[in-house]
Amino acid sequence: MLIEHPTTGEAIAARELAKEVGIKAATLERRWYNGDRGARLVRPVNPNLARVRAMSEQEKARLREMADKVEARQQERLRKSAAWTLLTAPRLGDYARILRGETS
Question: What is the pTM of this model?
């Protein structure tokens, strides 16, 4: 499908234009069929999503690392709680023995 480029006016494939502006081709084609043209056709889907797509791989890796650290802290808090004992105890009677201080 050929679409008129919003800035140059040249005919360009929808997939190429979508890649150029950083949105999915299906989104671009749906907008075109709905009557969007020019700047409205190539607007970002969501400003936050556009920002994330523009992030470098280093920034994405840093965010993944931060998310992993938060997850690890949450898991550690769970392990220290009585709920963890309940979740990992094979039988309910084991929890009572743990509370009484009996270990085997």
Answer: 0.43
